[in-house]
Each structure stands twice: as C-alpha cells, then as structure tokens.
Amino acid sequence: MQPGEQRAIVTIALAAAFADGNRDEQERDELRRVAEALQLGPDFDMASVAQDVLLGRVDLDALAAQLGSPELKQLAFEFAVGVCDADGLRNDAETRFLADLGRALGLAQPQIAGPAALADAIATAPLEAAQPKPSNVSEAELDRMILDASITNGALELLPQSLATMAILTLQVRLVYRIGSAYGEQLDRSHIRDFLAAAGVGLAGQYLEQIGRGIVGGLFGTVAGDLVGVLARGATGATFSFATTYALGELAKRYYAGGRVMNTDLLRDTYAALLAKAKGLQAGYRSQIEQRATSIDANGVANLVRG
User: Fold this and answer.
1) What does the DSSP assignment read for 50-67?
2) At residue 33, does pLDDT exceed 90?
C-alpha cells in the first residue's frame, strides 16, 4: 500500500468516525489518542489529517482518486462501515456519509449493500446470542470464559476479512454482559458502552486502532489475502485483541463482583495494569490462537457473533 493510499484510507476512516456530526471535546480527545496510537511512521502527517477531519475539509472524490485499485476502494468502504457501526447501528447522518462515499468510490450497489448488511448483523446481534444467561457461575468458570473469548478474538484479528474486527468488539461487549449477568446484573448495550468508556476503551477508537495496525503491519497489503500470509504477519494485532479482551473480562469480573463501586480513575488504572499483564500472557497462547483462526469460517463471522 502506497503512502498516498494509506493517507486516503486513514482519512476516510477518521471521517466516518465523525460522520454523525458530533465533534465535541470528548471525541476530539479520542481522535488525538487514536492518532497517536496509529503510529503510521515519521513521514505520515497525522496532525494535518486530523485537522482536516475536525474542520470538515474532507473531499471524498479526491480521496477516492488516491486509491489505485478496486480492491482498496472496497476495503476503504468496509472500514468506514465498520467505524460507523462500531458503537452501535449507524444513524441517518452516518448512512448519508456512506452513501456519498460509495458513490465517490464508484462502487456498485451490491458492493455497498453487502458490507453494510454484515456490519448491521454484527452490530445488532443479541447480547445473549444462542447461549443462556450464566447463573451460579464459579470464578474458575468465568476465568475459562474470559480466556476462551480472548483466544477467539485474537484469532479473529488474524482473519483477512476487514469486518471480522467488528465481531471482536461485539464479542467483547457480550463477554462483559455475560460476566455482569453471572453477578446478577441486568445490563444493556448502553450501560456496557459506558463501562468501556469509563475504562478508557472507546469502541470506535479501538476499531480505528486496529485499522492502523493492519496498515502498518501490512495485513491489508494484498487486500483480503490468504490466511497463511496473515498468520505470518499478524502477531501484533492478535496480541492486541487477545490482551484487550482478557483485560476487559478481568476488569468486568472485579467491577461487578465488587458491586460496581470502582470510580473512573480506579477503572482506568486497573484496566491498564490488566492489559500489561495480558500482553505478557498472550505468547503462551499463540498456537491456540492460530489454530482457532484456521477453524473459523471466514465467511461465517456473523454466525459466530450470533453464537
């Protein structure tokens, strides 16, 4: 992927994050944090990209012209759909943005409708899926649930399909839901999003970070390439998804077991410590992550989310 193509894709993804029209200070802080996390290299002028997005100076036609192949144009659209749906089903403003983007990219209707339908299915998947609410679950069983979800999400990060990343976010939300339910809490998506935000984990921001790592690591260089090639290059992404899932699960266990009394500072400090621990653990599960990646049907990500 050429530098101009990188810039175009990142700009489109960031514009999608602000397509709902909200540019409050919290979102600006999130954008700055994500921009720092992307680490696209010393020659990538992330500051000017962020400024263009925040000031509404985004020309979709010009960005589309920077993408040199139909595959990259499709990839850029899929990223935008994922960002818009990362924190819930997109609103009218986001839908209009995606329609304008699809036109600018010259995509046919099936190329627009297919990713949108898959993203919608993932974003609206029921929290309980096909599994009953856990009750009277032991701490050891919760630990196994957290580890299994972490391995699955590490495996999803290795899949070459871009929208598999959305499934990671949905499965993380479901994990928090199931842990809360085990402690007798009645949770909904809104509460879980607030819990994640309090811990410093924005869903849209996490999705953008995963896009950036994929670009830097070359995961999208061949565009939906074979899984063998992705496995060879994807250790960083798998570590991130394994670690964030593990840390969120352990944080949720502490939070709900303790009666939801942790304040924002304690939540963030605890999450940071758990994340550091999880990154150290991941190497021991790499073979399991890679094995699971080969067993997941790349065309059945939505089915995995449905349970």
Assistant:
1) HHHHHTT---HHHHHHT-
2) no
